[in-house]
Amino acid sequence: MKLMLFIYMALLGPLFPAADQAPVALDDVCRAIGGGDIDQLVAAMDAEVELSILDEEDVYSREEAKQALNGFFAKFSPTSFGKVHQGASKSDDAEYCIGTLSTKNGSFRVYVYVAKKNNGVVLQELRFDRG
Q1: Residue 73 near residue 85, CB atoms below 8 Å
Q2: What is the 3-state secondary structure (H, E, C) of 72-130?
Q3: 42-89 per-position pLDDT tens digit
Q4: What is the pTM of this model?
Q5: Confidence of residue 121 (pLDDT cuts 50, 70, 90)
């Protein structure tokens, strides 16, 4: 019985986030964008995320979003990210940030939308538009 439980946890454990994982804040997401840290962005994502990169817009799974972000950051290596505006929804259950991502190949206007969840936030929408 213990062996079966061990196998079950070994196989399915990676599908569920760790309970002791530190909550993510909007500032963490913004730092990840500025540093091109795709793994941190994916870790902050909800199960599905609305992603808009230039003219390509769709709802992606985490894995699909990771691939799209890999392609974007491969073409546009980030040098910095600066917030222009930050706020919260009227019901205070979500936050957003608008900023400028500077890259080696130009700048982008970035819109980040996160929902508050479990003392942290989950990334639900991310947009990159030419600045």
Answers
A1: no
A2: HHHHCCEEEEEEEEEEECCCCCEEEEEEEEEECCEEEEEEEEEEEECCEEEEEEEEEEE
A3: 999 999 999 999 999 999 999 999 999 999 999 999 999 999 999 998
A4: 0.80
A5: very high
Establish if 8 belongs to a structural domain: no
CA 90, 26, 32: angle at the middle one, nearest 5?
150
Q: What was the pLDDT predicted at 14?
A: 47
**Domain hosting residue 54, numbered range:** 23-130
Please give the DSSP secondary-structure letter assigned to residue 25: -
What CATH number has the domain bearing residue 76?
Answer: 3.10.450.50
